[in-house]
Design a protein that fits this description.
The chain is 78% helix and 0% strand. It contains four helices and no strands. Helix 1 crosses helix 3, helix 2 packs antiparallel against helix 3 and helix 3 runs antiparallel to helix 4. The mean pLDDT is 81.
Length: 102
């Protein structure tokens, strides 16, 4: 089956946007990783307030997802139930993001 060149080309804007998203994600992950658990909880309170007052957008979705993943990772060795619950929250959030993006 013969493919055209355009089928294998990624638009430059899409590539730049994906690269920027990966950079933002890494930066936020680095930030969350160095926080104490107390500071991580304070950050989560701030995110909850943002979720209640701000319109839902991709930046807030990313921040929320990474925050839940960080808390889940730290809590994983304490309780399997909490880990399952947090992983479920991440999955639900990712589904909502996908519907929002489409």
């Amino acid at each position: 089956m013969k493919q055209t060149i355009n089928e294998n080309v990624i638009p430059m804007d899409a590539w730049k946007q994906a690269l920027q998203l990966r950079r933002e994600e890494k930066s936020l992950l680095d930030y969350l990783n160095v926080l104490s658990f107390h500071d991580l909880m304070n950050e989560s309170k701030d995110v909850v307030q943002e979720l209640e007052t701000e319109p839902f957008n991709e930046d807030l979705a990313l921040k929320t997802r990474l925050l839940i993943e960080e808390i889940s990772g730290r809590m994983s060795h304490y309780s399997d139930e909490i880990t399952v619950m947090l992983n479920s929250m991440v999955s639900n959030l990712e589904e909502k993001i996908q519907r929002m993006v489409k």
